[in-house]
Amino acid sequence: MSQTEEKKGIGRRVQAFGSFLSSMIMPNIGAFIAWGFIAAIFIDNGWLPNKDLATLAGPMIT
């Protein structure tokens, strides 16, 4: 196997691994954004502090 063929093989493996990682993260982007809004708005130091709703974000922060 020549060096250029070996580089192509490594590049394909890296690209496949990147695709695998993105396939795990992309479906969860909405959940991450929603959790961020809940945390920013309802935690104790948030814009609209609410103890009941802050319990949703609490376990993820600590």
From TrEMBL:
The chain crosses the membrane at residues 20-43. One of its GO terms (biological process) is phosphoenolpyruvate-dependent sugar phosphotransferase system. Keywords: Membrane, Phosphoprotein, Phosphotransferase system, Sugar transport, Transferase, Transmembrane, Transmembrane helix, Transport. It comes from the Bacteria. This is PTS mannitol transporter subunit IICBA. The keyword Membrane applies. InterPro entries: Sugar_PTS. PANTHER family: MANNITOL PERMEASE IIC COMPONENT, PTS SYSTEM MANNITOL-SPECIFIC EIICBA COMPONENT. It comes from Enterobacter hormaechei. GO terms for molecular function: protein-phosphocysteine-sugar phosphotransferase activity. GO terms for cellular component: plasma membrane.
